[in-house]
UniProtKB/TrEMBL annotation:
<feature type="transmembrane region" description="Helical">
    <location>
        <begin position="644"/>
        <end position="662"/>
    </location>
</feature>
<dbReference type="Pfam" id="PF01494">
    <property type="entry name" value="FAD_binding_3"/>
</dbReference>
<comment type="similarity">
    <text>Belongs to the paxM FAD-dependent monooxygenase family.</text>
</comment>
<dbReference type="GO" id="GO:0004497">
    <property type="term" value="F:monooxygenase activity"/>
</dbReference>
<dbReference type="InterPro" id="IPR050562">
    <property type="entry name" value="FAD_mOase_fung"/>
</dbReference>
<protein>
    <recommendedName>
        <fullName>FAD-binding domain-containing protein</fullName>
    </recommendedName>
</protein>
<dbReference type="InterPro" id="IPR002938">
    <property type="entry name" value="FAD-bd"/>
</dbReference>
<keyword id="KW-0285">Flavoprotein</keyword>
<keyword id="KW-0274">FAD</keyword>
<keyword id="KW-0812">Transmembrane</keyword>
<dbReference type="InterPro" id="IPR036188">
    <property type="entry name" value="FAD/NAD-bd_sf"/>
</dbReference>
<feature type="domain" description="FAD-binding">
    <location>
        <begin position="240"/>
        <end position="289"/>
    </location>
</feature>
<feature type="transmembrane region" description="Helical">
    <location>
        <begin position="604"/>
        <end position="624"/>
    </location>
</feature>
<keyword id="KW-0560">Oxidoreductase</keyword>
<feature type="transmembrane region" description="Helical">
    <location>
        <begin position="573"/>
        <end position="592"/>
    </location>
</feature>
<dbReference type="GO" id="GO:0071949">
    <property type="term" value="F:FAD binding"/>
</dbReference>
<feature type="transmembrane region" description="Helical">
    <location>
        <begin position="526"/>
        <end position="553"/>
    </location>
</feature>
Length: 785
């Protein structure tokens, strides 16, 4: 059996044989992970997502049939020689000679060894290279090792498994396996068991028939499907014609080439069969070498010196090939080895992975294939098939394994945002020498001071839950005191100023909620907006917003959106975001400032507002259950299904923020001029004689300064990403000028919301400059013509 993933299938499609092979084999439609008693652990239906992303679902079929199709596709079959066994390799400065067991010799410019893990070509290459590179050769001779052994087979007449069904087994006794249904009631399977200890090199065992019989008897009880009409591994063993017990070898080699000899496939990057990546990796490596040979041949011919390359030219080609393929092959080897270990549950950590982590990872197969396929290898001198162009994750040679943008690079680039958070912590802090608000607010609260408003005496409330609880009431009462001036227009901080500030934050908070429902953020801290909302409430916006923007930039690379479904947000979550925000955040805050009845009630509303990190999260969770869960359909067939809701919500809240900003400017015009200037007239620290209200004014001024500065920088970072990816067609200065004008005219909340929404539409409708989309290929062909 051979399993091929999308990259290898694309190459077969370029060669024109994929359609014929598809007719003989089955594509995997879904997979199940079970324990050896048959209990279902995980079910994964993401293989239709793989087809939508790349155009090709994983295929499995008989190796013999694939080899026949490759042979039949050859234009000159006379160059294919069967039954030849290489016994020696000779090379000189002009070429290389393969000496065969029957006495025949064949000479050429290059010898490519694709003869498997026990490669004769590789061993002859070691002999030639040992004198010059003794350490590398000695290391490679012991690089191959085995932790497992396995039985591979094909069972016939198995009616219990349907074509395209894949079952993976694991157990805590050091054994596991898998089975795949194929056409004609065939089942491809393998059963692996952990060896007592790791063995290397020549110590890797070779098994006899009696070893196979012992292995079968020990593992026949593994259950693939329980029930009266169930299926066990014993049933597969009993219905198989040829079964073989072999060691499961893996290894990473250092010496991939020497002189005019180069190796590919299992001979230089051997992995376990857990990912079904052996054949795929071999095809990719050979395709990359073929691309290099074609370029080098054309270069030699173009300069008029014939098609024969020099040794120096071959060295450069071989080294480029090794560097390009070593990273992906090494990663696949590591991951497949870990999965083999995890399937056999060799450690508590692996038991945790199989038993718990794997159950909660969405679309594991599709995401694993994405990293391999998005930047895989294609034949450069043949056109890309139409199937690989009409996809939601178009082929992009600049992305994939070892090509993703560095997290460290993005972290270093975003340090100014982090510095802004640190600066805010140092200047808008709780230290008495700067802003003695905490101490003074505590004094006001415990001193039972009353406030006068329009000749009325309003006590500062100290308890909200009908019994004295310092753990709850103390922070709530202190928080109310910070907003007392704006609630009652007592002094410098006006209601319009605070309403504008908090409405601007509502727009940003809506973005946080939407980002938390984005598929690309499933495994990042951006998934938990309540944490940042709580930090903003207790630490202040000036410290929290820059920190969120820092993390968002670090974890929101354009690489995250190589597949169109990764931009998608969960529609049920998105649909509930604004209602939850209005219910638990905006409503209590507005009522705390404009409640027309008893003025003391405003403090109760403010107390309710302070709980918004929890109340918004609970409201969002509850309200989202009122909407249908359409994610499985959207990620394949409706990639922009969330955009109308996002557009409606962001535009509505941005309009409210613009109204609050403009109202603030008009309300403050008589004493302060336009409201924007009041935000920036922060005059450093307060004098020792400053009142609580004067300190409070400076505190909110500095909060506004840092928040606005941070959002402007953050938008610059996001649009710069789009610019580098070739997705921003508008001029850079045009975009940033529009953002700057928007900040002054409509306020930071409105501008942030509209700019973020614009980025969302760019991500949804435009492709990376290096993505091989149908439109780009057609444009290139027209230019060529």
């Amino acid at each position: 059996m051979v399993s091929l993933l999308t990259t290898a299938l694309q190459i077969l499609d370029q060669l024109g044989i994929l359609e014929k092979w598809e007719q003989t084999c089955s594509n995997i439609r879904y997979s199940q992970s079970r324990d050896v008693n048959g209990e279902l652990l995980v079910e994964d239906w993401s293989y239709n997502l793989i087809r939508a992303r790349h155009g090709y679902p994983p295929l499995q079929g008989e190796r013999r049939v694939l080899l026949e199709l490759l042979y039949e596709n050859l234009q000159d079959k006379s160059r294919t020689l069967a039954g030849k066994e290489i016994i020696d390799v000779l090379q000189d400065a002009q070429g290389v000679t393969a000496v065969c067991k029957d006495g025949s010799r064949y000479r050429g410019d290059v010898l490519v060894g694709c003869d498997g893990v026990r490669s004769t070509v590789k061993r002859k290459m070691w002999d030639l290279a040992e004198k010059e590179f003794p350490d590398a050769v000695n290391s490679d001779k012991n690089a191959l090792f085995a932790d497992h052994c396995a039985v591979f087979g094909i069972a016939y007449g198995i009616e219990q498994m349907r074509p395209g069904e894949y079952i993976e087994l694991s157990h805590d006794l050091g054994r596991g396996g898998s089975a795949s249904g194929d056409k004609g009631s065939k089942v491809f399977y393998f059963v692996e068991a952990a060896l007592p200890e790791r063995v290397r090199g020549d110590k890797i065992p070779r098994y006899e028939p009696e070893d196979l019989e012992t292995f079968i008897n020990k593992n026949a009880d593994m259950v693939l499907r329980p029930g009266p009409n169930g299926l066990t591994m014993g049933d597969l063993f009993a219905n198989s014609k040829n079964i073989k017990l072999v060691p499961i070898e893996q290894g990473k080699f250092n010496l991939w080439h020497y002189g005019r000899i180069v190796c590919a496939g299992d001979s230089v990057h051997k992995s376990t069969p857990s990912l079904g990546s052996g054949g795929n990796g071999a095809i990719e490596s050979v395709a990359m070498l073929t691309n290099g040979f074609k370029r080098l041949h054309d270069e030699c011919v173009s300069v008029g010196r014939g098609p024969h390359p020099s040794q120096a030219e071959l060295n450069r080609l071989f080294e480029a090939y090794r560097k390009e393929r070593e990273g992906p092959s090494s990663t696949i080897k590591t991951i497949s080895g870990y999965i083999s270990d995890a399937r056999c549950l060799k450690s508590p950590l692996q038991r945790l992975f199989i038993g718990h982590v794997q159950r909660n990872v969405p679309n594991p197969a599709a995401n694993a294939v994405l990293s391999v396929a998005i930047g895989g290898v294609s034949l450069e001198f043949l056109p890309l098939p139409q199937r690989s162009l009409n996809v939601i994750a178009p082929f992009n040679p600049t992305m994939g394994f070892a090509k993703w943008e560095s997290i460290l690079r993005r972290t270093l680039a975003a340090l100014p945002l982090l510095a802004l958070a640190i600066l805010a912590a140092c200047t808008v802090g709780d230290r008495p020498s700067l802003f003695p608000l905490v101490e003074e607010s505590a004094y006001l609260r415990h001193g039972n001071i009353t406030m006068t408003w329009n000749s009325s005496v309003l006590p500062t409330m100290q308890s909200f839950i009908n019994f004295r609880s310092d753990g709850i009431d103390s922070p709530l009462a202190r928080g109310n005191l910070f907003l007392t001036d704006s609630m009652y227009s007592l002094a410098s901080v006006s209601p319009t100023q605070m309403v504008s500030f908090m409405t601007d934050f509502a727009v940003l908070y809506l973005i946080w909620l939407l980002e938390s429902g984005r598929r690309a953020n499933n495994f990042s801290i951006l998934k938990f907006p309540a944490l940042f909302a709580a930090a903003m409430h207790f630490l202040g916006a000036a410290k929290t917003i820059p920190f969120y923007c820092f993390l968002h930039y670090v974890f929101s690379s354009i690489d995250n959106f190589v597949a169109g479904d990764l931009r998608l947000t969960k529609r049920r979550w998105t649909s509930a975001s604004l209602p939850a925000l209005c219910l638990a955040y905006l409503t209590p805050f507005y009522l705390a400032h404009f409640w027309p009845g008893s003025l003391i009630t405003r403090q109760y509303w403010m107390c309710a507002w302070q709980l918004f990190p929890i109340s918004v999260a609970l409201s969002l969770w509850g309200l989202s259950r009122c909407f249908p869960d359409t994610e499985d359909k959207d990620k394949v067939m409706n990639l922009r299904g969330d955009l109308p809701v996002i557009r409606c919500y962001v535009c509505f809240l941005s309009a409210v923020a613009a109204w609050a900003w403009i109202s603030r400017g008009w309300a403050d015009a008589t004493t302060w001029g336009f409201g924007l200037f009041r935000t920036f007239l922060a005059s450093g620290t307060a004098p020792a004689t400053a009142s609580f209200s004067e300190n409070l004014l400076r505190f909110w001024q500095w909060e506004g300064v840092y928040s606005l500065t941070c959002q402007f920088m953050w938008l610059g970072y996001l649009f710069w990403d789009l610019r580098r990816a070739g997705m921003l067609q508008e001029g850079w200065w045009t975009v940033m000028s529009a953002v700057a004008v928007g900040f002054f005219v409509a306020g930071p909340g409105t501008t942030t919301g509209v700019a973020w929404l614009g980025r969302e539409y760019v991500l949804a409708y435009r492709s990376h400059k290096d993505a091989m989309t149908r439109e780009k290929v057609m444009t290139t062909e027209l230019k060529t013509c």
